Every structure is written in structure tokens, then in C-alpha cells.
Amino acid sequence: MNNRKPDMALIISKKANVFNASNLLGTGGWLPPREREALDWITLIKWMGWKSKLIDPKEFNDEIMNACNLKWIILTDDPDEFESVFIKRLFEFIKIFPLMIISRSGKAGSHFSNIFGAETMTTTAIVNTLDWIGVPQHKSWPCKKNIRVNTLECRPGIEPLVTANEKVFVAINKKAAGKWIVLSFHPSEARDLEESFTSLLKYILVYQSCLPVAWFNFENTMVLRMDDPGSSETVHHSRYQNTKLTELEWAVIGEELQKRNARMTLGYVPGWVDDGDDTLGNISINGKKPARRKGKIYPSPLVKYESLEIKGKKKIYDYESEFRGIQQLRKKGLVEVELHGYTHIHPDKESWINAPDRYNNEAWYREFGRSAIDYIKEIPSEEHPFRLGLKALQEIFKTDTSTLICPGDEFTNNVLMKALEADLMFVSSYYLAVKIGNKLYWDQYVSAPYFDTYNPTRFNAGLPVIGYFHDFDVSIHGVDWFSDCLKDWQTAGAKYFIDFKELAGILSHTISLNKVGNETQLNVQQEDKWKTIRAARISAYFPETLSTINFECDLRKSVYRI
């Protein structure tokens, strides 16, 4: 095995050919655990900072073993379904190579259980705390509620690794060079029930590694995401009674971010749509009164709209002031923009203008939803609202886009493929899609709770949490609402507030620890184009000394001495 190459986890699944045939893995909605076991492992390995390769068991050979710095082999599916010859071959490998294999356990009397030396019991036990009894030290994971989990029966020579109430749930079979670890539970099902199981799986991957290992540390990390700056929906949709945030309000938001060394993503809408109705309001573009034209799209930063309300009341929607406020925060490195659609309004502007429900039907404000797909199919590719939005955002802010946030969190595969073709790193909905290689993988364990629904258990997984909200929340409730939500999340455990560009800069890299002579090196390899904005938090574990170190690294060099 080549110690100059990135750390690799080999994921072996009988569904590998089906997964590898698609560029979009997952749906963005909830998938049953047994349909996404391989997908869940791939995304977890990505968050650790390692590479993964998904193969069919028939593809496994010596060449794969020698082509990468293989430290882990992960078997998905029921282990009893793998041929006994294949299982025996893997056992031969861990007699020779210092690598770890992890899988579910087999049923009583199965060929896998007989070879391994442990089996899944048909009885279950109630779990409220998981206890690690292996090296380097004792650790416990409290569960937020009691859950029922199958237990393991181990024969002599098989060591328990994780227990609860004197029952075994994870066990280890050690060989001359490597080891095989089995789980009594389906990892995706367990992660659905309790966030701590994600932390447990990470802990196994790290602290049962046979070789030194480094990983990205995302403990207590929150990605801040505010949607709708720039959007004309606030003017047109009858549900909204608030105006846009002013330059002064943005400055106060910036102060709250600066106090916490925080960065925030703004899901910006660069195209502002005129309904052409001067009985409802007047607009100025860059300080001038234009001739009104239904469906005309203007750059959002140039717009100032004055609504004509009943009894002479007026509301001012000052997008120019909003833009100045955002730019001031961008200069200070506190916020950065990402794409929240082109206009936030259905791309068929003619139909929207002529629709009697254009001001109160939410469906008109879902630019990439199913209702828009037929229209999008008929227009030239260069007129696709995603492409127009991407171009407009770049022209306005002179920055590349790393993340797509679809209006109303509605999307089809059509726009997901556009995001992938444009090399975006993320699609942020309630769940998060992450670009890995040339594919987009949905991760169901990095989700986006609303910003005012703080919960300490969100951080139990040790993965980032996305706190999302809208600019109208601050407009309605004031900047104090934003400040209070930040405080609440800090009380819940948030210590690091980042944005999507910072996250993209970290996940664009893979890391590995390798011995070169008497020296340990952190090797960094850039996989995608995004550069690091701030130093990444990294942890490293050394099995020989049972020691862990934590440090920060900007990832700009390819080799660091540890």
C-alpha cells in the first residue's frame, strides 16, 4: 500500500453497480435506511476528509489493495449474503495488512457468524447509554430516549467494544495485522433513531484504525444560512407584510457575527421581477423611473420599490440599501452570497402575470419546482433560470457560487444536474447534497432545522448543523431575534459559525497521516476548486501511543509536519 496517497475507505456493496450508474445519489427527501446504507457510508467518509471507493464484491482484487492507502473496508448489506469464499479471503487480508473491516453481524448459525465468532441475537435490549470499553479510553454516548437494539453473542477470543447494560452491541475479531468489527444494528437505522450512533461510527473508524489517522473536526459547528435577500417575492406575495432589511440593520447583524467570529451564507436572488402594475406601487432603477413593463427583470441591487397601500400608507422596499449593507459585511469577511434562484418566481413570467392568483398562490414562487419543469424543457439551455441566476450573481458580486438553495426548497433532477455540471459543491435543502467526485450525494444526517428551533442533540452526531431562516424573520422580529437565536444555539453547543464557502473550502480537500522515516506527515490533496477561507480544525490519532492531538491547518500546502 502506497503511503503517499490519500486515505481510502473501500465500500463493498451488491448494489454498487446501481449506485455507480447514476450521478445523483439520493432524492433530497427521506429514503428508507436499507436503500441508502452505502450512500450513508460514502457521505460520512467525506465528512471525515477521506476518499472512498464503492465496488461490487466481484470487483475486489489485489490491484485495488495496492492502488491506494487503504485503511478501512466497509461491507454494506447483510453479511450473510456474501459468499463464504469472499469472507474468508477478507480474513486472509487482515492477517497481512493493517486495515480495519467493519460490517453488520450475521445471524445465528450463518457461515459469516461461524467464521467471525459472533452472532446477532433475536432478542433486543433497551439502550439509553452506549459505553465504549476499548482503547484509548472509556467514553459514553447518552441517548436522548430509550431505544431497542439487537445484541451480540460472542464466542471466546471475540472482544466486546461497545456495551450497554452489560449487553454487547459492537465486537472485534483481531488478527495478526488487522481487525474486523461487527455491529449488532443496521448503521443507518440506528443513526435515524439516535444522533449519537453517528458519533459512535466515527469513533470506531478513528480509534480502531490500525494506522495513524487524521480527520476533519466538525464538532459543535453550525452553518448559518439566511434566504431571500434580493427577492421580489416579498413585494408581490400577499403573505409578506414586511420590507427589506436596511443598511443600518445589516450593520447590526454584522456586529453580532463579528462578536462570534462568525460567517453567514446569504441565499441571494439576483433578478427582480416587475409586475408592471403602477396602481400597486412605483419603482426606481438605479435612481431613475423606468417605463413599466410586465415581467421585466432588473438586477436586484438597483431596485427601490414604493408600495401604495390603503389609506395612503406606503412601504419602501430599498434593495439598494440592502445591497450596500451586504457589501459592507462581505468586505469584512462576515457574509458571502450563494444562489437562491434567479428570480424566485416561476420562469414562465407571462403565465405568472396573467394568473388571477399571482399574488397569493405559493406555487408561483417555486422557480425550480415540478410546475416549472415543462416550461424549462422548452427553452434554450442558456435561458435556463439556473444559468441566468449563476451569471447574474457572478456579475453583481464578482464571486463564484458554491451552493444552490432552491426557492421554497423545491427542485427536480433537472436543476440538480445543472448544479452538478456547474461544479457547485452543495445543494442545500432540509438535507444537504454534497459533490463527491463527479456525483451529487444527498446526506440525511446534515440537515437544516429552522434557526429558532435550537436543540442540543443536533450536535450529538459531530457533524455540521445548518441553521436556516429568512430575512423577513429579522425584518419582523428585529435584529434582537437573530442575536437571541445565536445565543440559544451557543447554549445548545454551537461554538463555530461558518458559511458554505468556508465549508466548501474544507471539503474540497482530503487528508491523510503517513509515516516518512521517523517523521509523521499530514498529506493534503485538493479534490475540488474551492480554497480554504480559514484554517480547518483537524484531529489526529496515533494507535501506537494511544494519543490524540487537535490542531488547525489552512490546507494550502500539500505536506505538513506533525
Summary tags:
Rossmann fold, elongated, 17 helices, 3 domains, five-stranded mixed beta sheet, nine-stranded mixed beta sheet, 32% strand, TIM Barrel, alpha/beta, 562 residues, single chain
Structure description:
The chain contains 17 helices and 30 strands. It is an alpha/beta fold. The protein has 3 domains: 7-211, Class I glutamine amidotransferase (GATase) domain (Rossmann fold, 3-Layer(aba) Sandwich); 221-271 and 323-504, TIM Barrel (Alpha-Beta Barrel), CATH 3.20.20; 509-561, no CATH class. The chain starts with 6 loop residues before the first strand and ends with a strand.
* Major sheet characteristics: 9 strands, mixed
Number of strands: 30
Strand content: 25-35%
| Whole-number count of domains | 3
Mean pLDDT: 95
Question: CA-to-CA gap between the ends?
Answer: 21 Å
Q: Do you know the CATH architecture of the largest domain?
A: Alpha-Beta Barrel
Adjacency order of strands in the biggest sheet: 3-1-4-5-10-9-8-6-7
Give the proportion of residues in helices.
25-40%
- Assign the CATH topology of the largest domain: TIM Barrel
Low-confidence stretches: none
Structure described in brief:
The chain has 562 residues and is α/β, with parallel strands linked by helices. Helix content is 27%, strand content 32%.
Any chance you could write out the topology, listing elements then pairs?
Blueprint: E1 7-12, H1 16-20, E2 24-25, H2 37-48, E3 51-55, H3 62-67, E4 69-75, H4 84-96, E5 100-104, H5 111-116, E6 118-132, E7 139-154, E8 159-164, E9 167-174, E10 179-183, H6 187-193, H7 196-207, E11 213-216, E12 221-227, H8 233-236, H9 247-259, E13 264-268, E14 271-273, E15 281-285, E16 297-299, E17 303-308, E18 314-318, H10 319-331, E19 335-339, H11 349-354, H12 373-378, H13 385-397, E20 403-404, H14 413-421, E21 426-428, E22 431-436, E23 439-447, E24 465-470, H15 471-477, H16 479-492, E25 496-498, H17 500-507, E26 509-516, E27 519-526, E28 536-542, E29 547-553, E30 559-561
Parallel strand pairs: 1-3, 1-4, 2-23, 4-5, 5-10, 12-13, 12-24, 12-25, 13-19, 20-21
Antiparallel strand pairs: 6-7, 6-8, 8-9, 9-10, 11-28, 14-16, 15-17, 17-18, 21-22, 22-23, 26-27, 27-30, 28-29
Helix pairs in contact: 6-7, 9-10, 15-16
